[in-house]
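Data deposition worksheet. Section B asks for the primary sequence of the deposited chain exactly as it was used as input, without tags or linkers unless they were present during the calculation. Section C holds the resulting structure in token form. Section D is free text for depositor observations; keep each observation to a single sentence. Incomplete worksheets are returned to the depositor.
Section A, Depositor: J.P.
Section B:
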Amino acid sequence: MWHKAPPCASEQSSDARWQAPTVRQQKYSDPNPVVRFVIARFFRRLQAVLAELDPHSVLDAGSGEGEMLRRGVLPAAVRPVCLDLRPASLAELAVPHRVCASVLSLPFADRSFDAVTCLEVLEHLDHPAAALRELARVARRAVVVSVPFEPYFRIGNVLRGKHLGRLGNHPEHVQHWNLRTFPAFLAGSVAEVRIVEAFPWIIACCRPNQL
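Section C:
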């Protein structure tokens, strides 16, 4: 049985940098019509990927403020397990199954979920390959991940006047991928990769290796 928002022990793992206080990311309420359009398109394409997979069980690893749930991206019958390092974020989610843990050490048995999603997380990690191996380990049928499409994501930030001193790079982004390098990175841990362009993001639907 899953438990509601267990308290997290203090962690100093390599993914700790992106565990900020719970707050809905500003981009999701940005009034800019271009920003609203690309975000809505991102979630539409993610919804299409998940509808095709038709999973019965889903782990949302790094669920954060739960924007995917808010937008009704998952098939209606699916009740996901949401995992995050921030108890405050988990407490706000209207789902019964909430787990406080790191994507680097998932507290689940091998092949526990039909599909595992991990959105806008890998670019924050010092060791994203370790996280990807964990995501693939607990997935039966698919791992769906997304990252910023660089350098266009940074260019977009510059055009919006964001992070100008860092040439548009978000201060918490330590990994940078494009349509060539991201599939190459993923191929080291999964059996098959299908890329879905959702500019200025990349969505990848991956088939895990058979254990």
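Section D:
The chain has one domain: 27-208.
Strands lie at 58-61, 81-84, 98-100, 113-119, 139-148, 190-198, 201-208.
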